[in-house]
Recover the amino acids of this structure.
């Protein structure tokens, strides 16, 4: 399924009440889904306040949901609500620009926002002792936002880069963001793209923005949601102090009243885009509103169609017929009636007509007969398990509350909707299929490469946007002189985290088992890590280990691929497998009462894969289609190039996912040999985390893996990775792509390097977070990218470093200069104490939030086991990060991040940037995309 992003308008919740809804139980006496307990009240100015206390966390999530979204964009200003979302992070009367980052990211938290058709939500997570500051800051930006010409233009440039990255540079960005809504609605503003267009963004004025803020950013159009560790009486006092004085405007809130007329006949929309490697087709029907009684049945219908590998669309189009590389559906249920859609990205050589016919056949099946009891139960289990996983974090619970308020008009729906899903019957599913998915009321959207547009047919010209859509005569705020600013509140005493305490044992067969209880939420993650990855690929068979690991869930000696998917999904579980450079893994996430049954399946796929020839052929074709898509994405292409550029001549020096040529050479015997060689208990680690005790975890490990026999032959050692090649400069030319991916990269350190902690601090100073140096220079100051980052990836013997950003093609050389300049600066002068403290806080905060989820904790403990790090590093991580000083960061940067030793890879529309790069990099190799060969040391055919 695709995540539904539209939502309903805010409800008026006038009474103060404490809500403690009944627990919702899963079928067949399954584990309970705990309700989200919360209280609510409404201030005299109309602000709605929701509070949910959780004493188990040292953090708090603060969210403000506004009842304004992209459907409220002024005519001729599509993308305006989203643009405004960016401006809300800038200055207020009392806060200089980026103060929100100082108050969140720099203390170990984070902030972000999202814009949907019906709402905009702003959310932060911070240590709980910073709560008062966030309440004050949210009130300040609601009431005194500064909108000036410089900030407005800078953020508009950033939004345009986001549009280029997410829509124009993505092969299917135009289809989903532009053509689907345009084709599916005729008059309702849902038809406009939420991210906007370059032309309408360019036409926007400062007056437009100020008028928009005055119209919609007001207390009676907002809800404050706070979840985490706090005293509720104290929270109420702070809310009254900072939000209480804000006035409710006299002007009524404008609301969209346009109604989409019923569709009376089918339609066809033809869309085209550059760099579309595989054609796609989407069928959409008019759907229900979120508050409609049919909404639960439509959600279950959606799950039956496309939730998981046992879903109808996957089984039919991807698995059985093999005509699609991806099949999907969505019940998009916003405030006003939305849409239900099904779609497919076709496999190579398959036609849109085949895809449309197959999609229509599956829809007809739902109209003609109700789903089976097993299908219905499986769909409900998956939906309920998904809701449970969302509740694993405080920000997830806050988001669920806000979304229920906006979408359903009642925050209590966050709990009641689970019971409503449980009440859906098979007859209900058939009924809504007949009601909404009539064949003669569908819209067909066909998406093909621009080269297939009929000769003489031009893309329809869009009307020129108006020069101005609003006038503004209200107050204009500016940043007050420092002496006149209201100071933010102080910081309270910190809440100390309770860290998990891992326990471990080793089974007689050599399997190391680690268990860490981390939560009372009924979820468990089981992760089996085998210490062999892409380095084990035989010569000429790049991608073999990755394919071997990926195929573990595609059939065993006693279970077919479809049986594995159906059995796991009927338990509400998620089972996946895959490979990396150094490891292969099988990961299970499931509720504790289903863990024993699910682990039996997990053990079967890990120990007894069939590697059937027909399954390999199926997976190979899917992988090849995936590469066809990836080869049109500049970021993916640059990532693939990193392996031969940085690690050429070593076991890391090939693309881990494989290439078209190497995948074609794979045979079942190749995969079986890799598995037999490396999948053995004395080369594996099993980690269980979440709602599980050490005693229970060890017992389950013995039941599932205790009889896994250790081979008599000794285990071969993993290779030492020692790159010796010279730095390279490579430009990969992808004609017509919307952006360039700019990357500098080089070999780096092992995980056991004594400078590991100075290294991760140095990388975080450069590119870890919104306020890091690269993002400051490239995005914040110049608007050249949606985001710039740097990553230090350690490994058993030799890791890698990469700094990157995507930008419009003509700015590629400038962005490269900025990356190199920041590398040079950090080596030349030590980081200041405030900067260093802030970047350390980012690391500590990210680590703590990863520990808070069962999957994150399993990943951390699995990595420690892989690299020989003692498990009690969990309790020492923070102190080791805090002990790093500026001199260590500077020394590490000089040693490891020297720009002169960096390779450069830029992928994009080469004609716009290759000459400027060549002037800077005389040895630049320019490789046309159609001449790429990642199996060759030169990367050229």
């Amino acid at each position: 399924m695709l995540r539904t992003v539209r939502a309903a308008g805010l409800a008026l919740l006038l009474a103060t009440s404490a809500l403690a809804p009944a627990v919702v139980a899963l079928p067949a006496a399954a584990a309970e889904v705990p309700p989200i307990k919360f209280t609510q009240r409404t201030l005299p100015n109309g602000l709605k306040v929701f509070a949910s206390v959780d004493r188990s966390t040292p953090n708090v999530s603060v969210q403000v949901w506004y009842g304004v979204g992209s459907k409220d964009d002024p005519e001729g200003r599509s993308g305006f609500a989203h643009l405004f979302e960016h401006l809300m992070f800038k200055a207020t009367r009392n806060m200089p620009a980026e103060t929100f980052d100082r108050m969140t990211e720099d203390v170990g938290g984070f902030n972000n926002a999202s814009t949907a058709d019906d709402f905009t939500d702003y959310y932060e997570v911070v240590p709980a002792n910073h709560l008062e500051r966030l309440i004050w800051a949210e009130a300040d930006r609601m009431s005194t936002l500064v909108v000036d010409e410089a900030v407005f233009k800078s953020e508009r440039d950033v939004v345009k880069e986001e549009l280029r990255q997410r829509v124009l540079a993505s092969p299917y960005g135009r289809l989903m963001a532009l053509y689907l809504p345009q084709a599916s609605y005729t008059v309702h503003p849902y038809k406009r793209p939420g991210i906007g267009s370059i032309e309408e963004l360019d036409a926007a004025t400062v007056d437009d923005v100020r008028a928009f803020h005055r119209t919609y950013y007001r207390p009676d159009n907002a809800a404050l949601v706070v979840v985490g560790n706090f005293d509720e009486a104290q929270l109420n006092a702070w809310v009254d102090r900072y939000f209480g004085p804000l006035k409710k405007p006299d002007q009524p809130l404008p609301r969209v009243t346009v109604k989409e007329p019923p569709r009376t006949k089918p339609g066809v929309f033809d869309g085209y885009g550059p760099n579309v490697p595989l054609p796609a087709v989407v069928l959409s029907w008019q759907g229900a509103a979120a508050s409609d009684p049919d909404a639960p049945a439509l959600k279950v219908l959606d799950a039956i169609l496309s939730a998981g590998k046992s879903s109808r669309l996957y089984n039919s189009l991807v698995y059985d017929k093999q005509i699609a590389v991806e099949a999907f559906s969505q019940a998009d249920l916003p405030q006003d009636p939305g849409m239900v859609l099904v779609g497919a990205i076709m496999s190579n050589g398959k036609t849109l007509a085949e895809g449309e016919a197959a999609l229509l056949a599956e829809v007809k099946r739902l109209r003609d007969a109700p789903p089976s009891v097993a299908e219905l139960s499986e769909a409900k289990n998956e939906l309920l398990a998904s809701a449970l996983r969302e509740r694993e974090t405080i920000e997830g619970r806050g988001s669920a509350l806000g979304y229920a308020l906006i979408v359903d008009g009642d925050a209590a729906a966050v709990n009641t909707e689970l019971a409503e899903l449980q009440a859906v019957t098979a007859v209900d599913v058939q009924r809504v299929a007949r009601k909404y998915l009539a064949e003669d009321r569908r819209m067909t959207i066909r998406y093909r490469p621009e080269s297939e547009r009929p000769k003489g047919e031009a893309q329809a010209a869009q009307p020129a946007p108006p020069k101005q859509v609003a006038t503004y005569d209200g107050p204009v705020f500016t940043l007050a002189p420092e002496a006149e600013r209201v100071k933010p509140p102080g910081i309270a005493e910190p809440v100390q985290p309770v860290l998990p305490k891992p326990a471990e044992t080793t089974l007689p067969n050599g399997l190391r088992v680690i268990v860490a209880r981390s939560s009372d939420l009924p979820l468990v993650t089981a992760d089996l890590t085998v210490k062999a990855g892409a380095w084990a690929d035989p010569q000429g068979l790049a991608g073999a280990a990755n394919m071997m690991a990926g195929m573990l869930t595609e059939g065993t000696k006693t279970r077919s691929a479809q049986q594995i998917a159906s059995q796991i999904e009927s338990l509400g579980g998620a089972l996946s497998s895959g490979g990396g450079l150094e490891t292969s893994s099988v990961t299970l996430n499931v509720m504790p009462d289903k863990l024993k049954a699910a682990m039996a399946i997990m053990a079967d796929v890990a120990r007894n894969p069939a590697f059937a020839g027909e399954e390999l052929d199926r997976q190979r074709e899917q992988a090849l289609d995936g590469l066809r898509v990836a080869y049109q994405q500049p970021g993916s292409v640059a990532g693939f190039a990193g392996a031969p550029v940085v690690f050429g001549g070593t076991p890391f020096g090939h693309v881990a996912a494989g290439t078209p040529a190497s995948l074609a050479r794979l045979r079942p015997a190749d995969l079986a040999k890799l598995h037999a060689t490396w999948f053995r208990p004395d080369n594996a680690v099993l980690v269980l985390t979440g709602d599980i005790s050490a005693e229970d975890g060890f017992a389950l490990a013995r039941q599932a893996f205790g009889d896994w026999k250790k081979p008599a032959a000794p285990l071969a050692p993993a290779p030492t990775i020692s790159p010796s090649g010279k730095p390279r400069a490579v430009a990969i030319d992808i004609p017509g792509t919307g952006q360039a991916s700019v990357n500098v990269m080089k070999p780096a350190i092992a995980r056991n390097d004594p400078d590991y902690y100075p290294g991760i601090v140095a990388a975080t100073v450069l590119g870890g977070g919104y306020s890091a140096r690269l993002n400051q220079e490239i995005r914040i100051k110049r608007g050249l990218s949606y985001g710039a980052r740097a990553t230090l990836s350690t490994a058993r013997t030799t890791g890698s470093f990469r700094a990157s950003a995507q930008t419009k093609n003509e700015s590629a050389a400038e962005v490269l200069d900025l990356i190199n300049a920041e590398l040079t600066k950090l080596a030349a002068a030590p980081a200041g104490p405030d900067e260093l403290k802030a970047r350390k806080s980012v690391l500590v905060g990210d680590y703590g939030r990863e520990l808070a989820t069962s999957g994150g904790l399993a990943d951390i403990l699995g990595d420690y086991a892989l690299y020989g790090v003692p498990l009690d590093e969990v309790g020492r991580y923070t102190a080791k990060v805090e002990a790093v000083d500026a001199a260590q960061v500077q020394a590490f940067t000089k040693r490891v991040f020297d720009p002169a030793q960096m390779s450069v890879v830029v992928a994009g529309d080469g004609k716009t940037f290759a000459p400027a790069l060549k002037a800077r990099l005389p040895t630049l190799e320019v490789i046309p995309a159609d001449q790429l060969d990642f199996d060759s040391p030169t990367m050229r055919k």
Remarks:
- Confidence is low (pLDDT under 50) at residues 1-30.
